[in-house]
Specification:
Blueprint: E1 2-7, E2 10-13, E3 18-26, E4 32-39, E5 46-53, E6 61-65, E7 73-78, E8 83-88, E9 97-105, E10 119-120, E11 124-129
Amino acid sequence: QVQLAESGGGLVQAGDSLRLSCAASGRTSSSYAMGWFRQAPGKEREFVAVITWSGYSRSISTTYYADSVKGRFTISKVNAKNTVILQMNSLKPEDTAVYYCAAAPGRNGWLRTRDEYDYWGQGTQVTVSS
């Protein structure tokens, strides 16, 4: 089992920045993928970003982003911890959503669909006013 604890959501104005954090505890693995998804009211949950690392080079990770956030959002990992940060800059009203952290221990690769992840956080609200 993996427990995911998210933090960092809030209400900001367009152009501002926010930093989301997701700490994973429980099951460990040499391979791991952790991603962020978001769900706006009345819409499907959509992929935002993923970070993945594997094998012996656990300090080396790769990332992938949805086109809608590329260049504005950055996903990173706190080394030696299964904690992932989503730094969100130049926020837009259309970024307003509940943001969910997801984990797939034992897997690597740019996982971009919901069913590829085994564990989910409770979600944190991000609201961007115009």
